[in-house]
Amino acid sequence: MALTFFDAGRLARDLHAAASQRTDSCGRGAAISRVLAPLLPHDGLSLVATDPATGLGLGSFSFWHEYAPALVTDLVMHRYRGGDPNRPAALAGQATPATVVGPPGDGAFDPRVREILTANGAGSELRLLLQDRHGVWGALGLLRCAGACPFGPDDLQRAARLGPALVAALRRYVTEGPLFPTVPALPAGVVTVGPDHTITAVSPPARDWLDHLSSPDEHVFPEWVPDAFLVALSLAARSRAHDADAWPPLVCAPPVVCGRWMTLQGQPLDADAAGDVALVLQGAAGDLVMPSFCAWYGITPRERATLRELRTGAAVKQIARRLDLSPYTVNDHLKSLFRKTGADGRDELIAALTG
Length: 355
Prior knowledge:
Elements (H helix, E strand, L loop, with lengths): L7 H12 L5 H12 L7 E6 L11 E5 L3 H14 L5 H4 L6 E4 L9 H9 L2 E11 L2 E11 L7 H23 L13 E5 L5 E4 L1 H10 L11 H16 L9 E4 L1 H4 L3 E7 L8 E7 L6 H8 L3 H10 L5 H8 L3 H15 L4 H9 L1
Antiparallel strand pairs: 1-2, 1-5, 3-4, 4-5, 6-7, 6-10, 8-9, 9-10
Helix pairs in contact: 1-2, 1-6, 3-5, 3-8, 11-12, 11-13, 12-13
């Protein structure tokens, strides 16, 4: 049955309210699930956010409800080891970026995914890529238990209509979070993942970063998510090691996740990517943060150029000369930057990128 009445604005507000509840990530995931259930019935939910600056695949933060850790781990391993014909990159090229996996005849049939779902008590999974003209903002996964009516073509159309509201809710969740760091700067930390895809070592600074990911004052991932994410990052690093044109995978997480901008990057420690992979967790600022910062806050290329000059300490007239603009135009760009970010002046705006 199609959605005969649909208020995207109200849905976005309800989703944001659910994501912003003062509870742990599992509680927030359950709340998001309750918002979506009347529109698209399901038994489990995965909502993973990314941003157009970091590309497809690995997310910056996530919400979960009734997704078993073993199911997530098996699906991630299959994606990087077996290919998975329904991975995000494949959905990005479709007119409707959604598919159903599990039942034969829906989407690109993958018998291994069906085996994984069945082993974990699931009958079918609906996957929706959250994208707009700016790029990809994440992915929604919905599960139906074994024995339930599997997702079908009508569900795909209903899911596609939910996409804009989900994107709006995720962007609001980030941009209404802290603009400035709320935790002290930490030194870079390193996690190593062995060739058997298990975590073999965690440096003390890395442990501090992981503790921040579980802080009761911040986003709070389910206990199993950080380890699963680190293994996924190492798998992504291995898969790109043999592509000379591919950059090492980089994830940039906003302050709403762990109190300050942070990056996670993976790099194999040997030429053939058969041994250990080092994952570096560190605070981020300046040029490393700029692309993701501008994506989340909707900063235009001209505004971004103004912001880049502002970071050098340039005055309005200097910025105008360097960018071949009038001072009035530069001031308009600054006003727009302050409005979009909520910064109270240039000092606060610079501090948001240098803290």
